[in-house]
Amino acid sequence: MSESLPRAGCPFCHPAIREAVFFKSGGFMAIYNIAPVLPGHVLVVPEAHKTSLMELKEEEILAFFMTARQATLIVLNAFHTDAFDWSVQEKPEAGQSIEHLHLHIVPRRRKDLPEAGDWYPAVHKNDGEVIDSMKRRKLASDDMKIIIGKLRQVAHAAGRETNFT
């Protein structure tokens, strides 16, 4: 991946983010979201500080989406479903609250929201309470460790284990 220095204050550049990693590939890491919209909500982020898909070279875009696909398979297996949403917001106008490229993967189940499509109007109106929000309730550290441990076990069983440090 093309080099980019960590940015001070960026939570995805902070070394502590490594504790949330359950899969890494091609310069990208899959992490469990500390404030999930629904159970299983994970993010795929570049290890280098990048703010936009447009900054990635073609081979990096492929690696980004291949990592997202592999992370999705891990999450779907761990959360026993085959339905999911993917979402990328670029810039605050689109709902991005952390200026570091990230793709949301949210496993879905029947009736997890009042209507399956309730996700989309919230994104469209840039609802800060739903998608990219610092206002959502954060999981307790112990709950995070249990979920990340489960995701790492599923990744290992599927042959998708990596070095998480």
Which terms would index this structure?
alpha+beta, 3 helices, single chain, about 160 residues
What does it look like?
- This protein is of the alpha+beta class.
- The chain is 27% helix and 16% strand.
- It is built from three helices and five strands, in the order E-E-E-H-E-E-H-H.
- The protein has helices at residues 58-78, 119-124, 141-157; strands at 21-25, 28-32, 42-46, 83-88, 103-108.
- It has a five-stranded antiparallel β-sheet with strand order 1-2-3-5-4.
- A hairpin with a 2-residue loop joins strand 1 and strand 2 (28-32).
- Helix 1 (58-78) packs across helix 3.
- The longest helix has 21 residues, at 58-78.
- The protein is globular and about 40 Å long.
- The two termini are 18 Å apart.
- Mean pLDDT is 85; it is low at 124-132.
